Amino acid sequence: MGQKTTLEERYGNKGTALGHVRGLGASKGGTHHWLMQRFTAVGNLLLVGFLMVSLVLLPNYSWATVHNWLSHPVPATALALMMVNTFYHARLGLQVVIEDYADTPGNKLALMLPVAVLLVGGAAFGLVSIARIALGGE
Amino acid sequence: MADRPLSPHLQIWRWGPHMAVSILHRATGDGMALVGLPILIWWLGSIASGPDAYATFASIMGSPLGMVVLVLLSWAFFNHMSSGIRHFVLDIGGGYEIDTNKRWSIGSISSGIILTALFWAAIVLI
Fold this sequence. Notes:
The complex is a heterodimer of chains A (138) and B (126).
Chain A: H1 7-11, H2 17-21, H3 31-57, H4 63-70, H5 73-101, H6 105-135
Helix pairs in contact in A: 3-5, 5-6
Chain B: H1 17-49, H2 51-61, H3 64-91, H4 98-125
């Protein structure tokens, strides 16, 4: 280092400097993960905010009151979106924790698979429950 | 793991608010993912299943221990939300000066506690 060399001397004449290093870092990628974490964070701000305000405004928490509230289109839509958004955000967050504390690629995979399955399953269960409340009638 | 020296870990640094806000962000996020989301879908599933299932949910989560869990979860949300907004500011390159960083770290932890108190006051009063 320190000597002045041209790009061609350093990298040969094929491809760009970026092309030679892209994907070689320890994490392989991450921009999409980072962006989706932020996008879903903004979504959560709105959607969980909607749930918290709704919980404050509900007159009581009897089954009839809560069921009637969630059978309306706007709360049902908001909570359905919240299922997708919060579970996606949770998956991204838990992935970072697993990557930080699991030491080998095998352990990472062994933790990530059940986490992904449980979170997709949980979101699906929530969506089916909301659909039944919103579409199931009395 | 390769047998190589590790970087200095937690015990070597002087504890500061920026460290507290960082680990609280992770702890509250994990708490909501591992405890909050299961309770959330249990709640939705019990509403969908009918009054009897909902009564079981309400009696367990309405018990003193259940209420403690709900209060902690609401705090986890407001704390994670506050430090998450702080993250957005850091993402656009603001708030890295030591004084500012310290002030906003303490601010986001305080905001989490204050919003939790306001939330439960509103639940009780409205």
